[in-house]
Each structure stands twice: as C-alpha cells, then as structure tokens.
Write a structure and sequence with these properties.
This protein is of the alpha+beta class. 56% of the residues lie in helices and 6% in strands.
C-alpha cells in the first residue's frame, strides 16, 4: 500500500505537508478533493472535515498539518523539522502551533470573501491541479454555492475579514520577530517555517495584500520555502479602505 496524501488544491496546510514530504524525500500518491466536497469526504475517511490527511503505507491515518508533521518526524527523522536543542525546539514548536491554530485560519477568513466578490480569481486557482480545469463560465455558475458553504464553514464573514485585516500587521510583526531571533527562516526549513510560510504564500497571492507582506522578512520567508502560487486574486477585490497601510521602504 502506497502512502497517500489527501488535499484540496491551493490549501495552505496541504501545501505545508507536501513541502515536508518533499524535504524528507517521502514518496506518496496525491488525492485531490474539490471544495467543499472535502468536508464530507474527509469526515468519512478521517473523522474530521479538514485537509490534509495522510494514510501511510502501513495503514496509519493522520489528519491535520500539525499532527502530520509530528508523524513524519517520528517516521522519517532526517532531515529534521525540529531542532535538537531543547530550547530551540520549544521555540519552533511555539511558532508552529501559533501558525496552525491562529495564523492558518486567517487566510481562509480573508480569501473566501474575496473569492465571493471575484469568482474569476477562484477560476485562476485551478492552475497546477491534477483535476480537470472547469471553464470560467462553469466556475461563475458554481461560485455562489461554493463560496457560501466555505464562508459558513470557516466563519468568513465580511466582519471577520475586516478584523483579520486590521490584525494582520501585528501578526507580521510577530513573524518578523521570530525571524530576527533565529526561530524561523534558518539554513534548513523547520516545521514553523512550513506552517507559517504556507499561509504567507497564500496571502501573497491576494494582490491587495502582497505589498504589505512581500518587502518584510515574513515575505522573504515565504519565498525561501515555497514557490509562488499560480492563482491570483486581483488588486481591488478587497475594498481599499479595509486594507492596512503598506510598510514604508527601508
């Protein structure tokens, strides 16, 4: 039985786990769900609605990016995703857990209202998927149903999006501080880099947010670990008066 990874294309926690598998040189087969069909499919296969999930070649099943990272480290210790020094490891684990519990949901709450306003952006995110691409006209027809369900599943209201946008500069300051302290963006990617970098990479696909992130150490972290996402949410999708100010040039 081959190891199988269950994902939604474009999902940032799925991207984090895919990158971890690549770094560790683990062969696997990929199964893609379409949103929001994953909510039912993952619940049937793994017991919860979220991607990613992995079924290892011996039958063990693990769901969620945080748990999968830990399982990969246990099964394939090299190259490590966590430092051997206890204090350094504790700092990486803190960043990783914050990246999964706090930062990861922010991208969902920001991007799904953006897709609802601009279904053409949802169409562009099909690039790189293993599944056949749907024509733009079909995406526009399906988009209201898809985005309504995803917004409900992720509590992605306009009010939540505005609150997350207001809080985003403070989150970026926290990430930059971890980078300055050597917790993130070191010589070898760690679990914190993967969890946080995947979310940054998705947020940078939103053109209204890229100028806020890209010039910062946080933006460089994302680019060190991940290739840019082919899909794009065009500038102007998020109301300009909702956006935080971009950092001044250094």
């Amino acid at each position: 039985m081959a190891t199988r990874l269950f994902v939604v294309h474009g999902s940032h926690p799925s991207a984090a786990v895919k990158r971890a598998l690549e770094l560790k040189g683990v062969d696997y087969k990929l199964f893609e769900f379409t949103p929001p069909s994953h909510a039912l499919g993952m619940r049937v296969l793994f017991g919860g609605r979220t991607v990613p999930g992995i079924r290892f070649d011996d039958g063990e099943k693990v769901q969620g990016s945080l748990a999968i990272m830990q399982a990969l480290e246990r099964r394939y210790p090299q190259p490590p995703l966590y430092p051997s020094d206890p204090d350094a490891r504790a700092s990486v684990v803190e960043a990783e857990r914050w990246g999964e519990a706090t930062f990861q949901p922010i991208a969902r709450r920001i991007i799904w209202p953006a897709f609802a306003r601009n279904p053409e952006a949802l169409h562009s995110f099909q690039q790189g998927s293993k599944l056949p691409a749907l024509p733009l006209g079909v995406i526009k027809l399906l988009a209201p149903g898809i985005t309504t369900i995803e917004r409900r599943l992720n509590h992605a209201t306009d009010e939540a999006q505005r609150a997350d946008l207001d809080a985003l500069p403070g989150h970026l300051d926290r990430i930059d501080a971890w980078i300055a302290d050597g917790v993130l963006d070191g010589e070898h990617p760690n679990a914190g880099d993967l969890q946080i970098g995947a979310t940054l990479n998705l947020l940078m696909a939103i053109e209204d947010l890229r100028p806020l992130i890209e010039p910062r150490p946080a933006g460089r972290l994302a680019r060190h670990v991940f290739e840019p996402i082919p899909g794009r949410v065009p500038a102007g999708t998020i109301p300009a008066w909702w956006l935080p100010a971009a950092p001044a040039p250094v």
